[in-house]
Amino acid sequence: MEGTRGATEEDAVLVSGATGFVGARLLARLVADGRRVAAVVRPGSDRTALEAAGVAIVVDDGTAEGLARAVAEIRPTTVFHLAAKFTAIHATADVDGLIEANVAFGARLAEAASRAGTTRFVTAGTSWQVDEAGAERANSLYAATKAAFEAILGHYAANEGMRALSLRLYDTWGPGDTRRKLLPLLLSARASGAHLGLSPGDQRLDLVHVDDVVEGFLAAEARLTAAPAGTFERFALRSGRAVSVKELVAILEQVSGRPMPVAFGERPYRVGEVMAPSPGEILPGWRARIGLEEGLAALIGGDACSTAKR
Amino acid sequence: MEGTRGATEEDAVLVSGATGFVGARLLARLVADGRRVAAVVRPGSDRTALEAAGVAIVVDDGTAEGLARAVAEIRPTTVFHLAAKFTAIHATADVDGLIEANVAFGARLAEAASRAGTTRFVTAGTSWQVDEAGAERANSLYAATKAAFEAILGHYAANEGMRALSLRLYDTWGPGDTRRKLLPLLLSARASGAHLGLSPGDQRLDLVHVDDVVEGFLAAEARLTAAPAGTFERFALRSGRAVSVKELVAILEQVSGRPMPVAFGERPYRVGEVMAPSPGEILPGWRARIGLEEGLAALIGGDACSTAKR
């Protein structure tokens, strides 16, 4: 097999977290673009959707040597690393899993990629790594594990010639999102009419449509293609528009043309609630194009203007 | 047991890496100072020396929950975290062990300490986390794992009220050092007369005596005692005197009063050899007190002046 591969063979791309909300959308886009795509999965993962999409499968056996052997078969020129374990507030029982998923797995993936000759590594960071003043200061153990992985990735950039970029994600949303996050819960309440108790609702979010996030990952890859070896950059994928939960509910009511079954102040803010999206330089050349009103109208399937007139 | 503990009971201190070169010396000092000392060890570790020293043993079972239960029995107010796995140039087979020893173990120790009410956490970093220009830029995966752990520890400081300090260690040396490092190798060659081939020898080291390093850890603990919750600081434990390998050999010859059986230029510099110690703010209130000439003379057991006159 190795011998048949020529220098002109199309570059392969390897995606982790390809069964997650953002990863699946990115994978579908890469496949649609005709890219040669592989997904890295755990031994027990459900591969049905991946195999249906026709992508190659790389199995992470939990060791750097095993993963390096598997990745060497693919020889990806780009890695998109989106796999992550999330906890807003962790318990002691979560620590081992957070470290394994967010640091150890990323470390062996970066090692495997480096050995396989990968030159571009784009990883998903979080807005929670940065405080409201713009300083690098994680607000949770989850965000700290993301920062820890960036430190590991820094080695592969500084000393092994990789080009790396961390995209700090904000509140990603869009069709097919089943995560227990605010917007899916609001859409579910809207559809069912079931009452939803909310916090006072003054915390502000920067909501970015998943298709804009996918464009961000592709823009990051293009940016690294033109970057010198050793590059390691960190950018925000944010729209620049901060919307409070109260305003978001008002937008949903406007788009739907009917009131939302919610009550503000029924729940307290979460401990350490982020009240405003962190700042940070937006990825150059990229901007969020799908507005909330437009995207929500498409998602709900109604016509915002005609619905509002009823 | 819990019920018998009063608020006035002497503060306990927990040490990791207590069987290592620096850790053992720190442990001995803490015991000599009459402190209530515990050491955290792996299940298979040799505890003979620790038990002989009369310190309590905390076994790390490899899980955050297990370690948290064990540390809760000790309730340390201070943790000195010196356990580490070192590789100058790593192979793929080293990655899992580096992450486990230098990131995952530290994370569960910080979690366990935080749950047990520990307020002061002093960790051993490395000068290799900083480049010659003073920027945070690890020169190896080893140094990157140290930086990654600092990112994890940052969470416990910023969000859980811990006071944390990372001491970046340079070239530590002193009696009883059996590590395969330059100075032990030189002392061994001096004693045996066996030929030792060296690199060209123009790389400069900042050599700090282990007793000065121990003083640094105690000074860091004292500093954190006066610091507000949430403090996280990074300081260098360096003498400020950079000595080339050639100069070091000359000092050894002067102290010994006889030539060293070494040849410069027989070996190449290591890939990525650090040619000068990194800068970085020295821990305030601390300074290296044991000079090379004085310390080496004591170590060799001779009198430098009379020997030199022979």
Architecture overview:
The structure is a homodimer of 310-residue chains. With 310 residues, chain A is of the alpha/beta class. Chain A has two domains: 11-173 and 207-237, NAD(P)-binding Rossmann-like Domain (Rossmann fold); 182-206 and 240-270 and 290-309, UDP-galactose 4-epimerase, domain 1. Chain A has helices at 21-32, 48-52, 64-74, 95-115, 141-160, 182-192, 210-225, 245-256, 292-300, 304-309, and strands at 12-16, 36-41, 56-59, 76-81, 120-126, 163-169, 171-173, 196-197, 204-205, 207-209, 232-237, 243-244, 262-263. A seven-stranded parallel beta sheet of chain A has the order 3-2-1-4-5-6-11, with helices on both faces. The longest helix of chain A has 21 residues, at 95-115. The radius of gyration of chain A is 20 Å and the shape is globular. The relative contact order of chain A is 0.12. The model of chain A is unreliable at 1-9 and 302-310 (pLDDT under 50).
SSE pattern of chain A: EHEHEHEHEHEEHEEEHEEHEHH
**What Rg of chain A is obtained from the alpha carbons, in whole angstroms?**
20 Å
- Beta content of chain A comes to 15-25%
CATH homologous superfamily caption of the largest domain in chain A: NAD(P)-binding Rossmann-like Domain
Largest sheet of chain A: 7 strands, parallel
| CATH fold-type name of the largest domain in chain A | Rossmann fold
Number of strands of chain A: 13
Measured between the Cα atoms of the first and last residue of chain A, the distance is 64 Å
Q: Helical segment tally of chain A?
A: 10
